[in-house]
Amino acid sequence: MAKLEFNLDQIDYQILRIMQDNARTNNADIARELGMAPSAILERVKKLEQKEVILQYNAKINPGALDQKMLSFIFIKAQDIIGVQKVGFMLAEIPEVQEVHDIAGDDGYLIKVRTTDAAGLVDLMRNSLGKIEGIISTRTTIVLETVKEEQKLVVPTKK
Amino acid sequence: MAKLEFNLDQIDYQILRIMQDNARTNNADIARELGMAPSAILERVKKLEQKEVILQYNAKINPGALDQKMLSFIFIKAQDIIGVQKVGFMLAEIPEVQEVHDIAGDDGYLIKVRTTDAAGLVDLMRNSLGKIEGIISTRTTIVLETVKEEQKLVVPTKK
DNA sequence: ATTGCTATTGAATAATATTCTTATAAAGGG
DNA sequence: CCCTTTATAAGAATATTATTCAATAGCAAT
Predict the structure, then answer these.
(1) Contact A65/B53, CB-based, under 8 Å?
(2) Which ranges form a coiled coil (chains A, B) (predicted)?
């Protein structure tokens, strides 16, 4: 793996801003908005993808539409050696687990899970978490309502 | 607001699967993959957007590229009356705060925050959180490393 | 100034998006 | 059963975009 070098200018930032806002904005529109040729934008976007500045494009789907209204965070205490995330990788393989973070403190993980309902959560804990070796204990926090949920980063403004 | 009715069939699920995987997949490609006419796909995608099954399209940007390598979760105990999320809304207005969840238990919130570094986090706590009336206490959990982070939902398969 | 490198433009062509008309099929009424 | 309504899809025609490529503008270093 080569060390990745990001070297972004204001135009890149503007592209990122637009893409964060609507990833399906087409090149022509971006070009018009930035007052440049579509081909130039295409070049830049490709470069951003290739440099892994843009990691992927995803559609945010309404969890309710797929009957996954329940959201929970679970703290997991594991006996992983520091720096080796065996349990972490196994957690990551569970489809309902959207996030797995190795956290400071109680040598553990924090995961974010979506299930249909409470029964689905119990199910997941029994059938998926229960089968992972190395989990010492868990503590579950249930989300009653989500006020905000996005992954937009703060894009630097002109300096 | 009318009660939203989702009524999705297998074709919709397939479209959602494709879109979750790559939101920039074009109509023609989706049509080819599903063996349908592009115009039919266009209709369905528009309908999915309009029914708010697809909420938005976003580009996932490498936090490192924007110098936001630090990720933290903060539990916030607030004196909001249950059901009224005054503090929650104020938290949601902070750009570095990506998520705000109203959680069960200690009448509080769980927020997800991205900053440049520890100094940025301290800064945010002092300058942004510090100015919100109604916050009683906070407890911060720092992420050492993220093993998985996505928002893909489990799309039902054929029944 | 000259060289070397990178990014941009503009034009040409390939590919898509979008609109609209027509065709099909399922559901409900009489 | 026939008719009507509603929803979805196909296909054709046209408007827009994407993509490629050659020419050139900018810039930094010398």
Answers:
(1) yes
(2) none
